[in-house]
């Protein structure tokens, strides 16, 4: 006697009066409470009363329905007809894709899954004649129970690269059940690994964690006045032409229209370097590096002198030495002569951990916001590049810069939450602390 557990929503239970009293002609269907409500409980189950009572006692069923096996197909057998069709179409040299499309057209939601159609088409193409499904040992579990959810969770935790097929095979679960557990119960999705600047060592993670912890503590101790004192900056190359991103090249199309095409392009060799400093209110100082000029310690000292004079003009409330400089750890920034200049001018430097563009406002905010609108545009000359850069910088609002500094603060906390590791791409670490406003970080 077959015992089939039916979850609500899996299929509509249909009730028939028992025409035969012999158990060999009957199946007992275990029904969950939600599905039982839709069943005519007045059906004649006298012929299997004793078996039903045994099932209720042993399986803890909430109800049973007697079905005449010669008038209703079991769940597995409802696909028999489709397997026969697959075998027939394979002999006509139809592709698995075409077969699946035809089954979907005829059976709609009752059609076999794409993976099962492809699997059976492959079997028949390799010479299989039997259309019956393979026998399985034991009763296959199709329930998304807490036990099965935890089994899937532990298996995926041990190896995040496992496919749905492998998980189903190892746990003896239906593939669709595994997919639903992963996507609905565990809220998981499969993603590609994200490129990071460097595989951080434990020491580097500890350094990032320490810096962000110190900054967070300092921020709270100074009643958030720290952010109003920081002037952050960096340098970047801007190209005469840089290909647009995949997202920028998206276009709407109808099913019958051809897919848009674009030629493979590379960055141009004509470039200009921008050096820019800004604070929570906006741009403080910018300049373009002359062609052929190396950004070495001598040049960077001159840049800092220009910045210091600019602060006196546009941020007099921070002059002469009430502001804090933040820049990354590129060699020109950390030479002895540069450090000596900063000490002589009594300019405090905010510590920045190595290999941390995700913690540098220029890298996660300013330069992406500057360059993205310019991608896909050909500029005629270096001067035209510089004009376009200036226009983009002038187009940034006060809210953009304020949003950037708020996002920077959240990134300190995200780094702490990730124990010093890279956190970009992990939305839970950033969004749990509030959505970014102003800055597209």
UniProtKB/TrEMBL annotation:
Protein origin, superkingdom: Eukaryota
GO terms for MF: nucleic acid binding
Matches recorded under InterPro entries: Mos1_HTH (IPR041426), RNaseH_sf (IPR036397), Transposase-MT_Hybrid (IPR052709), Transposase_1 (IPR001888)
Domain annotation Mos1 transposase HTH: ranges? 83-127
- Protein name in the entry: Mos1 transposase HTH domain-containing protein
Naturally occurring in which organism (per UniProt): Eptatretus burgeri (Inshore hagfish)
């Amino acid at each position: 006697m077959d015992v089939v557990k039916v979850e609500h929503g899996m299929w509509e239970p249909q009730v028939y009066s028992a025409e035969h009293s012999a158990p060999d002609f009957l199946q007992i269907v275990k029904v969950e409470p939600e599905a039982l409500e839709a069943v005519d409980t007045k059906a004649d189950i006298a012929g299997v009363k004793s078996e039903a009572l045994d099932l209720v006692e042993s399986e803890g069923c909430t109800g049973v329905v007697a079905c005449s096996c010669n008038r209703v197909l079991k769940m597995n057998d409802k696909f028999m007809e489709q397997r026969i069709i697959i075998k027939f179409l394979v002999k006509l040299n139809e592709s698995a894709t075409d077969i699946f499309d035809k089954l979907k057209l005829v059976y709609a939601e009752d059609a076999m899954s794409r993976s099962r159609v492809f699997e059976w088409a492959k079997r028949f193409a390799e010479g299989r004649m039997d259309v019956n499904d393979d026998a399985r040992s034991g009763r296959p579990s199709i329930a998304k129970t807490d036990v099965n959810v935890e089994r899937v969770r532990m298996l995926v935790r041990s190896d995040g690269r496992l496919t749905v097929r492998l998980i189903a095979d190892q746990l003896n679960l239906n593939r669709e059940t595994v997919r639903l557990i992963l996507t609905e119960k565990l809220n998981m999705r499969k993603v590609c690994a994200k490129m990071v600047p460097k595989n951080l060592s434990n020491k580097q993670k500890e350094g990032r964690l320490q810096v962000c912890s110190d900054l967070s503590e300092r921020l709270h101790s100074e009643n958030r006045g720290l952010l109003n004192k920081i002037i952050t900056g960096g340098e970047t190359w801007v190209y005469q032409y840089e290909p647009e991103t995949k997202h920028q090249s998206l276009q709407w199309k109808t099913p019958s229209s051809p897919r848009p095409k674009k030629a493979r392009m590379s960055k141009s060799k004509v470039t200009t370097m921008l050096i820019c400093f800004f604070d929570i209110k906006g741009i403080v100082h910018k300049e373009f590096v002359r062609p052929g000029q190396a950004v070495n310690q001598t040049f960077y000292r001159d840049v800092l002198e220009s910045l210091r004079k600019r602060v006196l003009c546009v941020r007099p409330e921070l002059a002469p030495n009430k502001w804090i400089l933040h820049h990354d750890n590129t060699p020109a920034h950390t030479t002895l002569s540069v450090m000596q200049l900063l000490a002589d001018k009594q300019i405090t430097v905010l510590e920045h951990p190595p290999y941390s563009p995700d913690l540098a406002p220029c890298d996660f905010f300013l330069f992406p916001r500057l360059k993205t609108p310019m991608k896909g545009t050909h500029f005629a000359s270096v001067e035209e590049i510089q004009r376009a850069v200036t226009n983009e910088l002038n187009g940034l609002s006060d809210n953009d810069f304020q949003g950037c500094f708020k996002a920077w603060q959240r990134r300190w906390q995200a780094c702490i939450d990730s124990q010093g590791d890279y956190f970009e791409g992990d939305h839970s670490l950033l969004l749990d602390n509030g959505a970014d406003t102003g800055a597209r970080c």
